[in-house]
Amino acid sequence: MEGKPMRRCTNIRPGETGMDVTSRCTLGDPNKLPEGVPQPARMPYISDKHPRQTLEVINLLRKHRELCDVVLVVGAKKIYAHRVILSACSPYFRAMFTGELAESRQTEVVIRDIDERAMELLIDFAYTSQITVEEGNVQTLLPAACLLQLAEIQEACCEFLKRQLDPSNCLGIRAFADTHSCRELLRIADKFTQHNFQELYGSKEKRRHKLPVSEIKEKTSLQIPQSLKKDNKGLLLTFCH
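Structure tokens predicted for Kelch-like protein 20 (241 residues):
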């Protein structure tokens, strides 16, 4: 049995849109406009500049202390900020400002157990997406990032420390990683220590700590070379301070 013939609307009226014509066509494919009918114009657009430009303006507002709704008191330092930006970047602040904590209603919020400069760097990162991890700040920056639950900065600090691993500091970095639950850095430091054990054993750096071989084995789960197992005089190593 043959199907019904499809009817085309050929009598397009002046000023009539494609949807007008379609509404008069009761036969044919309802999802397809008749031939000769202009297709509706549509162009989705996503701005690459918008997020960056928006943050730049909000950061300027912060620097001029405009529309700021919270002041973070860190030691002797006062840092003006916007709750929405802090909450968007940090689960720590999100819990603080959206819950029933007293801080959610306070204009000034005291943040304890965090380095002033590290906090400034992290707040700057929240507004600029930029931060510089270096030897002079990594040991205060990582604990601060852990407190504020900034996983991205924790990873950046750990990556920096991985690149700094050296026979003179690997056990110090390992201890630092262990303290702050940086499992990947801890694993890398253990592996580095094991691969460089002979060099570690003869280290003679100026700043050093004496650690018995037995304790090194316990702390790092190392396979101590047979030639050193009976030697428990101690290993001179440099630790991070």
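The CA atoms of residues 45 and 223 lie 59 Å apart.
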